[in-house]
Write a structure and sequence with these properties.
The chain is an alpha+beta fold and 374 residues long. It is built from 14 helices and ten strands. The longest helix is centred in the middle third of the chain and has 19 residues.
Amino acid sequence: MVEQYLDHSREILTSEFSVFKWGSKGAGIISITGHHDEYDLRKGFPLLTTKKMFTRGIAEELIWFFKGNTNIKPLEDKNVTIWTPNVFQFYLSEMIRENIFPKSVGTNEAKYSDEWESAMSEFGTRIRKDSEFAQKWGNAGPIYPEQWRAWKYYDEETGQVVKIDQLGQTIEKMRKKPYGKKYLVSSWQPGALSKMSLPPCHVLYHLIINPPGEEGEKPTLDLLLYQRSSDMFLGVPFNIASYAMLTQIIAQELNLEPRRFIHNFGDSHFYTGLEKRSQWYGDNFLGLREKIRAVNDREGYLEVIDWINKNAPSDRIEQDYDHVTAILKQLSREPKPLPKLVIASGKNLDDLTVDDFSVIGYSHDSLIKRKMHV
C-alpha cells in the first residue's frame, strides 16, 4: 500500500499534466490535479514505511478533533506542534501591533528566516507556559474540531445560532440505519473560512457500511475522503494514517470491520523551496521531469538528487523547505511490510486517550526532515 503513495508522488513529478506554479504560501509547487488511491485496511495499517512517521502525533491530533477544542494548547502541552506554525503566522501581524514580537519578524523577507523560526519557537513556549497568552493567541479558529463537533449555523425561524455535532449525530444515525448513504462530515463552511488559521485541506468524508459477505463476517466500513489541497511530503502521509485510524475507531464503535480508506485528491503537490530555489525549479521543470521519467531503478532517484543539489541554489534555509529532494529520497527506498493498528476496545471516541493506540510491527526507514510552508 505504500507503493500507492510512491506511485502518486512519481506521477506528480512526471505526468504530462503536472505543472510548476507559484502557490499561495509564497513558494513554488510541482502540482497535478486529480488522483485516487484506495487502502485495504484488512491488509494492514497504511503508515508510511519509507520514512519514520510521528505516530503519537497522529493519535493526539485525532483526539483533539474529537474534543471539539480549537485551541492548540492541549497539543503544545504534549509536544505536538503540527498546528503551531499556522496559528503563529495567522496572529503574527496582530501580535506585532501589540509589541509581542518586533516588526522585523513580520516582513516578507523575514518569513522562514532564523529570526522568524525563533519567534515561532517562543510563541509555542508561551502557549505551553502562559494560560492567559494561550487563551488569547492559541485558538486556531473554527477548524476541524469545531466543524466536526459543533458546526454552527443561524436558524432564521428561531433567531438562534444552532450547533450540530456532525460526527456524533452521524454515528448515532449509522447505529439506527446502517446502510444509509447520507453519512457525511464536512469541514468546509464558507462563512467561517476567513476566521480559520488554515482553511480545511481534507474537506469532506463519507462513511458507508457494507452488509456481511457470504461467509457471515461482520458488516464492513468504508471511508471516502475528498482532500482539496495536499502537501504530499508532510501532510498526505499524516492524512492517510489519520483517516485510516478514524475508520478503525468508528468501525470498532459500531461493531464493524474496517475495510477501505478511499482517498480522492484535488490539487496534490510538492513544495520546491523558497524564492531562488523555487525559481530554479520553475526554470528547469521540464528537464527535471525528463530526468525522473528516465529513472528505472531506485538508485536513479539519488542521482537526480545529486543533480539538483549541484545546480540549484544551495542556501540552507531554502533547502530545508525543498520537499522535492525529500520525496526523491523516499522513492529510492524499498517499502517495508505494513504494521497493524490496535485500538482499545469498549471505549467510544470521546473517551479515547493516546495510550489506547498501539502500532504493532512498525518497521521503517530513517526520518527525513523538512519544514512546513505556512
